[in-house]
Amino acid sequence: MRLRSSIIGLFLLFFVLQLQAQSGLADSIQRIHLWLHQHVKTSAEGSSWPVIPGESNGRISLDLYSGIPGIVLFYLEAHHATNNAEYLEEAKNGANFLLARLPEQLSEMDAQGKTGLFSGICGVGFTLQEVYKATKDTKYNEGFQRVLKLLLNASETRGETTHWGYVTDVIAGNSGIGLFLLYAYRETKNFTYLELAANTCNWLITVAQRVNTEQWKWRMWPGAEKTMPNFSHGTAGVAYFAAEVFAILEEGRYLRVALNGARYLQTLKNAEGLIPHHEEGDGKQLFYYGYCHGPVGTARLYYVLYNSYKKERKNWKKPWDAAINTLLKSPIPQKRTPGFWNNVSQCCGNAGVAEFFLTLYRMEGKKKYRDYAWLHTQDLLKRATSDAQGLRWIQAENRAEPEALAAQTGYMQGAAGIGILLCHWLELEQDKKQLIRLPDEPYGKEAK
């Protein structure tokens, strides 16, 4: 009887602790909402939020990186995690504003960045489609279709190559646009979008720098002064896009693009397995840990090669494992390094690292991954500002400007992105799947 009572007692303790954890996460999500709600502006168009509340110009952004789309996605995920109907209404109001602000057309001058996944209409299109899937309101799907038409009309196509401006990268350029086209193909099953994605990859082949026959690299745009090889602005992101095209089409030329980029990256690694921030000057000794220029982002390329290129599966498991272990053995988050500064965001800081390891835990169930994700989550929660206005993070977006401190609202550098991480924790506690996966995430997607 005593043993049975002890077992029941331990079970009840675990149950109470789990409820307390869920309650704490839900409260943090609610307090992020409180802060966002302090600064929302409502109009006949819908709801909008400034990038930086209190900024003199009250700047509003329509991009996924720092603007309204990220806030809408936070509210969608928060509704999924908590079943709070208020959050879904906030998502719809923000999506209504995005619909109202969709342009009638894009000119050739707009194509440079205005079409991008994180910088332009591709991020808006993705967000509208995700709102449609959550609400079944056809006006949001119609907005998604409008974005696709705008994108097609703004493209420059010659033969089997298509591009939008000359930026190559995931954030603002053709690799990110191509990833959105793959998302559109998965959503619609319309082969046109898959063909356009392949043609975009064909264009990226034409601007590759051939180091040798088996190693290629890409600058952010042809002729860019600095070469940033990691995920956001360089070779890792371009090669990842090519690997995603190969995973669907299984055509050898796209595999070669991905392999040539991945092989080149292997030549840049330091003893800890990190790839430098950029290849010129002091950038060779600067190493990031997060999504933008670190292993969190670049590991995505190795993951897709490991899963889709069966012939060399073992070869690409090694850098995939190395990216994980490099982070586990790193001094972060306890120590802030030149490449992991006063920033806790999805792009450069704790939130991106925590998301990566939370995903790994979902995929593989290893406790060390969950523990490491929680270590980073605890650290970012300690760095929050919490008061009567709600919960937010005052941080330095740019490493080179540590004095430029601000609390942002959006996805990559703000409360919305951190809030999405907290929603993912709450969903894990409730044994729910996460709702949204961005087009640049390979984990959990069906290739065909």
Explain what you see:
It is a single chain. By secondary structure, the chain is mainly alpha-helical. The protein is built from 15 helices and 10 strands. It has helices at about 1-40, 70-80, 85-100, 110-115, 120-135, 140-155, 175-190, 190-205, 235-250, 250-265, 295-310, 315-330, 350-365, 365-380, 415-430; strands at about 40-45, 45-50, 155-160, 160-165, 210, 215, 385, 390, 395, 405. The strands form 5 sheets. The protein has a two-stranded antiparallel ribbon. A two-stranded antiparallel ribbon has the order 3-4. Helix 3 (about 85-100) crosses helix 5, helix 9 (about 235-250) runs antiparallel to helix 10 (about 250-265) and helix 13 runs antiparallel to helix 14 (about 365-380). It is globular and about 60 Å long. The N and C termini lie far apart (about 55 Å). The model is unreliable at about 10-20 (pLDDT under 50).
Which features characterize this protein?
about 450 residues; mainly alpha; two-stranded antiparallel ribbon; 15 helices; about 55% helix; about 5% strand
Strand order of the largest sheet: 1-2
Tally of strands: 10
Straight-line distance between termini: 55 Å
Amount of beta strand: 5-15%
- Structural class comes to mainly alpha
